[in-house]
Design goal:
By secondary structure, the protein is α/β, with parallel strands linked by helices. The chain has one domain: 3-Layer(aba) Sandwich (UDP-N-acetylmuramoyl-L-alanine:D-glutamate ligase), CATH 3.40.1190.20. Strands 5-4-1-8-9-10-11-12-13 form a nine-stranded mixed beta sheet, with helices on both faces. Strands 3-2-6-7 form a four-stranded mixed beta sheet. Strand 2 and strand 3 form a beta hairpin. Helix 1 packs across helix 9, helix 4 runs parallel beside helix 6 and helix 7 crosses helix 8. The longest helix is centred in the last third of the chain and has 18 residues.
Length: 317
C-alpha cells in the first residue's frame, strides 16, 4: 500500500452557515485531505503551523494514519480563515484571511518525503508547488489543486506547474476561469494541452465530472452525482476531502487506470458527502470504514442503469 505525500495548509477556521457556526475549528486544505486520505493509505503531511497550534489537534492528527514529521511548528500564529455561507452552500464568502506562518512557508522535504511516489499539491502558490516537485525523485502520480486567487494573479506560473502534473482537481467555476471557456469539455481539452491527462471537476451539490485525454484527441468522460443528503451543515473542506478520498484510494491500491480513476471519483464523492454532515472535521472524526463501504455501494446502486430487455423501437416513418 504506497503512502502519499500532501503539501498544503493547516489552519483554524471560523465558519458560519444558516445551520450553525464553528469558531477556531481545525481546518486547512492539507488537514481535510490528510484525514480523508488516511482512511485508505498512510499520509505524510508537510505544512507549517504556529506556536498557538493546539496539542490536542496535533494528537488527533497523529491518530489518523498521518505522519507529522513534516509538520513544522514555527514562531508566529497558525493560518486563519473566516468565512460565511448563505443558503447557497456552493458559494463561500471570505470575511478574513490571515496567512500568518503560511506567508513564509517554504517546504523542505526529508529523504523519506523525497522518495514517495504519490504526490498531492494542495492549494498553494504555484511556485511553491514546483519547489516541492523539484525535491521529489521519481513521482509516479502527481495531482494538484488551485483556486481563483492563483488563477487570476499567477496564471503563467500556474500553467508552468500544470506541465508537471498528471491530475488537476478543480471546481467548475475555477475551470472556466482558468481556461476562459464556458463549456467544461472545452475547458478540459485546454487543460489537457497544458499537461494534465486527467481533469476532475468538482461541481458541489451537482456532483463531479472527470475528463481523461485519449488517443487522437478523444476525451473519456465519467460523471457522478452528489450523494443526496437531507441535512448539510458545513461545506468547508468538502473539495479537499473529495481530493483526499480520490488520491487516497489510488495510492492505497497502487493503480491509476481508467477503472480505478472512476472508482476514485466515487470514493471522493463519498468522503465529501460525509464531511458536509457536520462542522469542521467532526463527522470524519467518528466515521468508520464500514460506513464508507456502505455509501460506496449506495452510490453504485444509485447510478446503475440496467440494459434494455425485450424492447422494440418504433419503425421510422
Amino acid at each position: 500500500m504506497p503512502p502519499i505525500l500532501v503539501v498544503g495548509s493547516v489552519a483554524y477556521d471560523t465558519v458560519k452557515t444558516p445551520f450553525g457556526q464553528a469558531t477556531e475549528a481545525l481546518g486547512g486544505s492539507a488537514t481535510y485531505f490528510s484525514v480523508s486520505a488516511g482512511f485508505f493509505t498512510r499520509v505524510f503531511l508537510v505544512a507549517a503551523v504556529g506556536q498557538d497550534f493546539s496539542e490536542k489537534d496535533w494528537q488527533f492528527l497523529e491518530t489518523r494514519n498521518i505522519d507529522l514529521q513534516g509538520l513544522e511548528k514555527v514562531e508566529g500564529k497558525t493560518f486563519r480563515w473566516v468565512g460565511e455561507y448563505g443558503y447557497d452552500l456552493n458559494d463561500a464568502h471570505t470575511i478574513d484571511t490571515q496567512l500568518n506562518v503560511l506567508a513564509e512557508f517554504r517546504p523542505k522535504l526529508s529523504e523519506t518525503h523525497q522518495n514517495l511516489e504519490y504526490i498531492f499539491l494542495g492549494n498553494l502558490d504555484p511556485r511553491i508547488q514546483r519547489e516541492v516537485l523539484a525535491q521529489v525523485h521519481k513521482p509516479r502520480l502527481v495531482a494538484c489543486d488551485t483556486m481563483n486567487y492563483w488563477i487570476s494573479g499567477h496564471f503563467n506560473s500556474l500553467v508552468e506547474t500544470l506541465r508537471q502534473v498528471d491530475i488537476l482537481i478543480i471546481n467548475d467555476a475555477e475551470a472556466r476561469q482558468l481556461t476562459r471557456e464556458s463549456n467544461l469539455i472545452r475547458a478540459a481539452r485546454k487543460i489537457h494541452g497544458w499537461g494534465p491527462q486527467t481533469v476532475v471537476v468538482k461541481r458541489g451539490e451537482y456532483g463531479a465530472l472527470m475528463f481523461q485525454q485519449g488517443c487522437q484527441g478523444r476525451i473519456s468522460v465519467f460523471g457522478t452525482p452528489a450523494y443526496p443528503l437531507e441535512d448539510i451543515y458545513d461545506p468547508t473542506g468538502a473539495g479537499d476531502t473529495f481530493a483526499g478520498g480520490f488520491m487516497g484510494y489510488l495510492s492505497g491500491i497502487g493503480r491509476s487506470d481508467w477503472v480505478s480513476l472512476r472508482q476514485a471519483v466515487v470514493f471522493g464523492s463519498v468522503m465529501a458527502s460525509f464531511n458536509v454532515e457536520r462542522f469542521s472535521l467532526d463527522r470524519l472524526k467518528n466515521l468508520t470504514f464500514t460506513e464508507i463501504e456502505l455509501r460506496y455501494k449506495e452510490f453504485k446502486e444509485m447510478t446503475r442503469i440496467d440494459d434494455v430487455v425485450e424492447w422494440q423501437p418504433m419503425s421510422r416513418l
